[in-house]
Amino acid sequence: MNKPIIFAVLCIGVASCFVPETEFGIKLLKLGKEAHEKCIEETGVTQAAIERAKQGKFDDDDIQIKDYNNCLWTFSKAINKNFEINVELIKELLPAKIRDVQLKAIMDCHEEIKEGPILSLLEKTYLLSACVFNKNPENWIYF
């Protein structure tokens, strides 16, 4: 089963975000819930830390939120272990209203990070999420 999710561009049930959940497709809603539950269990992150990230407040010293963030990206197969983006999957999942602008933000941020210093996948996915939020806070979606 393909389990897509786009961490920096998604939101589900327990999440707050700037794009209304009513604009999400069924596949995105289902996967978001599944990923959120799996990644909380796997990382032990607090809901309070997730809520801060939903507001675009990223704590660079919180390893659990970084682990959670990385889990969302990789669990979904939106990013693989080599920091390669599954563009077709992201296009499929993004709400039509924000698809073009948010995909551009993701790709631009990905290129910036890829060309930067050598970092772990954990750090790269964390920087990617923060970058996407900073480029388009009005289109931010987070689980």
From TrEMBL:
Record key words, sorted: Signal
GO molecular function: odorant binding
Entry-linked InterPro entries: PBP/GOBP (IPR006170), PBP_GOBP_sf (IPR036728)
Classification via SUPFAM superfamilies: Insect pheromone/odorant-binding proteins (SSF47565)
Coiled coil: none
TM regions (residue ranges): none
Source domain of life: Eukaryota
CDD domains (UniProt xref): PBP_GOBP (cd23992)
Secretion signal, residue range per the UniProt entry: 1-17
Protein name: Odorant-binding protein
Source organism phylogeny: Eukaryota, Metazoa, Ecdysozoa, Arthropoda, Hexapoda
